Amino acid sequence: MKTAALFPGQGAQAVGMGKDLCERSAAARRTFEEAGGILGFDLAKACFEGPEDFLNRTDVCQPAILVHSIAAVRALEEKGAPLVAEAAAGLSLGEYTAHVFAGSLSFADAVRLVRRRGEAMQAACERQPSTMATVLGLDLDALRAAVAAGRGKGVVVIANILGPGQAAISGAVAAVEAAGEAAKAAGAKRVIPLKVAGAFHSPLMAPAVEALRQALAGTEIRAPRIPVISNVTAAEAVEPGQIRELLGRQVGESVLWEESMRRLGAAGVGRFVELGPGKVLTGLARKIVDGAVTVNVEGWANVDAWA
Question: Which CATH superfamily is domain 2-125+203-305 in?
């Protein structure tokens, strides 16, 4: 059975994240310290103690989640039982983490990139009021029709296709509200407004896309040692120029997560290991891939139990 490494995205952060891992693993501790030196502030303190509003800042939580994930990877290596995977994927921000795991990005470059990504996304959000909402229990064709109905009020798109009957929409506030009402009228079980700074993975992120393209242009990207599935195409990205282009586009385009997981399942992946905070991605893997075996590596107990 093949294994895929999965890496979470924004929203997985919580005060206390990574604390017990760093208390028991020197490798994890060094990972947080290295990141703090790159960022110029005490990332470990922000993760372990908060305050929550600081940790939830887009430019703080993005490096925090990446660093926690890589700390978990390194804790397994320190134990002498590294994760061996045939492929990797990450949700939005997590795609950068997947490239660190696969060797296409250095850890230091990735920390700098996701900090810049968070800053650029926040700046784009401040240019125009915008939002996102999760839509549950509606098939994709009906959701597309609801989004089309919302466009009379402004920009709105499907931002994330996470799993069966689970997606997110993104855009101008009035347009997202209108699309949400249309989705409920079409039979959606729930429409849940998200507590985010703005319309991630939509055309309103165009300024962030440009900022990321500039940052990526000056960043070394190598061929990954294992395939990484792109959020934009739901296909393998293995050539450095292609990786650079797709990472630049990603924040302004839809995340094809369900299709990505189906691609991995069709390639023979049956075991999914999620590294870092939360358990969202393993839960989705079980819904999408028949017979999926899932493992989470978040805290020290998970590392200690790792065989």
Answer: Malonyl-Coenzyme A Acyl Carrier Protein, domain 2 (3.40.366.10)
